[in-house]
Amino acid sequence: MHDQNGLRRSAMRFAAAAAQELSEMNWVAFDLNLLIVFDAVTQERSVTRAGGKVGLSQPAVSHALSRLRHMLKDELFIRTPDGMVPTPRSEQLAAPVRRAVSDMQIALEPETFVPRQAPGIRLDLRPTALRNMPALLDRGRQAVSETNR
């Protein structure tokens, strides 16, 4: 009975310490690029291929993984002859991180320009090279000043 109480107290202290570490994580300084690297390694299972996918060198991806491992206090991926194998914590994070990265890409993607739906586009053309431009543009509806003559 005494050993069970000791184990229970140790487990409670561990859980409290883990919760405090998470609450102390500096979310303001968190580099979102680390999640993009994590997502790429998760999909590619290779640091080199993940780097190619996100436009980073292999050493840069390794450094990013090292930073993320330190922050999350987990190895995240184990190097094997068959590639990078995710740890249970990495597997737990994979789907939420994939959704978050996808949502960020969609949210930050520029809108598609559709000319017919664009409100109030007005062009102001001021020719400088052709002296007879007013005659070329005058179709009875446009008023063109002749300041270049």
Briefly summarize what is shown:
With 149 residues, the protein is mainly alpha-helical. It has 6 helices and 2 strands. Helix content is 56%, strand content 5%.
Question: Care to describe what's here?
Answer:
- By secondary structure, the protein is mainly alpha-helical.
- It has a domain at 27-109: Winged helix-like DNA-binding domain superfamily/Winged helix DNA-binding domain (Arc Repressor Mutant, subunit A), CATH 1.10.10.10.
- It has six helices and two strands.
- The protein has a two-stranded antiparallel ribbon.
- Helix 3 (47-54) crosses helix 4 (58-72).
- It is elongated and about 100 Å long.
- The termini are far apart.
Itemize the secondary structure elements and their pairings:
Layout: H1 2-24, H2 33-44, H3 47-54, H4 58-72, E1 77-80, E2 83-86, H5 88-108, H6 133-137
Antiparallel strand pairs: 1-2
Helix pairs in contact: 2-3, 2-4, 2-5, 3-4
